[in-house]
Write a structure and sequence with these properties.
Distance between the termini: 35 Å
Largest sheet: 2 strands, antiparallel
Number of helices: 2
Shape: elongated
Number of strands: 2
Order of helices and strands: EEHH
Strand content: 15-25%
Helix content: 25-40%
Radius of gyration: 14 Å
Strand order of the largest sheet: 1-2
Structural class: alpha+beta
Length: about 55
């Protein structure tokens, strides 16, 4: 039985994605940001620190 790493009673609750728990601070709902990151990686093979911050 897998025990969740992140629980709702902590400030940074977790979300399960494909069986792995991720802290909410590492997730985004900003689709435009995701598209910018994917395009930059596709065209340059890298992602700038400005986009990742």
């Amino acid at each position: 039985m897998n025990t969740p790493v992140f629980r709702g009673d902590y400030p940074d609750t977790g979300v399960m994605i494909l069986g792995d728990y991720w802290p909410e601070s590492q997730l985004t709902k900003d689709c435009e940001l995701i598209v910018k990151i994917l395009k930059e990686f596709f065209y340059t093979g890298n992602v700038s620190k400005e986009l990742l911050n």
